[in-house]
Amino acid sequence: MIQHKPVVVILVDHKIRDLPVAVLIAFHLEQLGMEVHLEPLESYKGVLAAFRPDPIIFHHLLASHLVEYSKRLHKMGVLVAVLFSEGLTYGKEMRLFSAGRNHGAHIDLFFCWNEPIKEAMREVGADSSTRIEVVGPPRMDFYFPPWSGTNGAEGGSRRSRPKILLATNLGLAPYKELPPVEADKLFDIWSKRIASYKDYWGAIEVQYRSRSRVLDYMRQLLESDRYDVVLRPHPREGHEYYHDWVESLPVALQRSIVVDGTSKISELIIDCDLEISLDTCTTALEPWIAVVP
Questions:
Q1: Cα 278 from Cα 216, distance rounded (Å)
Q2: Is it true that the peptide bond before 293 is cis, omega within 30 degrees of 0?
């Protein structure tokens, strides 16, 4: 008798941020005898006919169209799983929103980073049939053997000067110079359901000013002529602004800085001597785990 080989589809939301983790999980699942397919989130409907999966793993189920799709999958007998790509939700309102207070998606299996999210899911009345597992951030596996060896970092001992990594997290700044309707669309649902998001124009103003200040600090660092700097924009930020800024610098300063928007963040963190983070980005947590200052 031929046994059915479980088929798993992992939908990748953001290639730079999420693909390395998806590949690692796929590797483990294939070792367990499963057939795994990695597909972009935009193909969420097509994977159903293409692969006939047993479960589909999402990074989130907050968007209304994905909520409705999760209910349809349930009716069709396809398991729905969620594996958070980001999990540092500090405020209670945000935790409850991420846990599903406002959307009511069908979720069979929910993998979360920490106990507060698990507690939030129970607080918002997650269905008792939803299995919730606290697994920690899967991306952190790349800071430990054997997967840390995949980063290819050269280490400080081979360098003539210390390397500083600046990880920005200022994705709202560009909205200051876009038509107001763009920000209004982005925050339409958030501002109505999360009190701290109501003054989103204030947040945009702060990030817009902060972006200039951060680069002023970076210029002073470069002018000291003591360090090499890697500037890593957040995956949700555009890179053009930072490339333009570097090109505006004197040639002598340009030699000491690069903008890297494509390398794995774990690779960049392991390969630096000092990491600088902004606000509540997960890159403030990751160097601590990797034992990097």
A1: 14
A2: no
Q: pLDDT at position 155, please?
A: 52
Classify strands 257-259 and 228-232 as parallel, antiparallel or unpaired. Answer: parallel
Residue 17 pLDDT: 83
* Cα separation, 26 vs 11, whole angstroms: 11
Q: Assess contact for 11 and 23: CB atoms under 8 A.
A: no
Read off the DSSP letter of residue 282: G
CA atoms in the 13 A half-sphere facing the CB of 132: 19
pLDDT single digits (tens) 100-157: 766 778 999 999 888 888 888 888 767 677 898 998 888 888 888 888 877 665 554 5
Contact status, residue 107 vs residue 61, Cβ threshold 8 Å: yes
Closest Cα partner for 229 from 168, 289, 286?
168
**CA 87/CA 32 separation, integer angstroms:** 27
pTM, 2 dp: 0.81
Tell me the C-alpha distance between 158 and 90, whole Å: 39
DSSP bridge pairs for 8: 36
Neighbours of 181 (CB within 10 A): 8
The average pLDDT across 185-189 equals 85
Give 3's DSSP letter. P
With CA atoms as reference, report the closest residue to 25 among 78, 82, 71. 82
Tell me how far the alpha carbon of residue 90 is from its chain's centroid. Answer: 15
What end-to-end distance do the CA atoms of the chain give, in Å? Answer: 57
Residue 278: name the closest of 231, 246, 242, 238 by CA.
231
Beta-strand relationship, 163-167 and 274-277: parallel
Find the mean pLDDT for residues 19-47.
94
With contact defined as beta carbons under 8 Å apart, do 45 and 70 qualify?
no
Residue 242 Cα to chain centre, angstroms: 20
